């Protein structure tokens, strides 16, 4: 009976050994992951381990060490794959953010240029209107000056007329020898 449990231990040992070994993970780029998994799923050494273990007890302890080493290698592969994936995702996020930032900068620059062009156009229109209004004001000033000259000429003509009339009236008073009545009314 003691030999039967030993046989069951040797036969049961190969069954648990493959279970703790995690599935192989690809170490290449994410696009090659499917191919690597397919390649890693079919390794022959796993089958050889089960055949070698029942041969001797030393081989079984060696296969356990080898299984542990393989598990460590698989763990390192997995962690390196995860690290590569993480770096890839981070670089994608950085590139995406950089692309969006450059798009926002381009949008901002185009809007600024558009507004500056509108401002320049408005300034040109204002300068044009300023010139037109300036010309109108100059014309109005010239017209007012012309009217003022006409009024001055009329005042001068009236003054000349009144002076001439006063001289004629004075000559008439001298000739007749009479004194003007308006003159006495002032005192």
TrEMBL record:
Residues 19-73 form the Remorin N-terminal domain. Residues 76-181 form the Remorin C-terminal domain. Pfam families: Remorin_C (PF03763), Remorin_N (PF03766). This is Uncharacterized protein At3g61260-like. InterPro entries: Remorin_C, Remorin_N. Keywords: Coiled coil. Residues 105-139 form a coiled coil. Residues 15-25 have a biased composition (Pro residues). Residues 1-63 are annotated as: Disordered. Belongs to the remorin family.
């Amino acid at each position: 009976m003691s030999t039967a449990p030993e046989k069951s231990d040797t036969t049961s040992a190969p069954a648990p050994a493959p279970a703790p070994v995690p599935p192989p993970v690809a170490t290449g780029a994410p696009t090659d992951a499917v191919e690597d998994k397919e390649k890693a799923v079919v390794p022959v050494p796993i089958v050889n381990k089960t055949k070698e273990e029942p041969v001797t007890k030393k081989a079984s302890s060696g296969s356990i060490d080898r299984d542990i080493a393989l598990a460590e290698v698989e763990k390192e592969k997995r962690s390196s794959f995860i690290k590569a994936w993480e770096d890839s995702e981070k670089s994608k996020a950085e590139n995406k953010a950089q692309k969006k930032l450059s798009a926002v900068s381009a949008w901002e620059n185009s809007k600024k240029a558009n507004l500056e062009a509108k401002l320049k156009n408005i300034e040109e229109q204002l300068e044009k209107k300023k010139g037109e209004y300036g010309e109108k004001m100059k014309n109005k000033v010239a017209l007012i000056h012309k009217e003022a000259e006409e009024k001055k000429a009329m005042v001068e003509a009236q003054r000349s007329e009144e002076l001439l009339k006063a001289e004629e009236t004075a000559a008439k008073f001298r000739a007749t020898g009479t004194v003007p009545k308006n003159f006495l009314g002032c005192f």
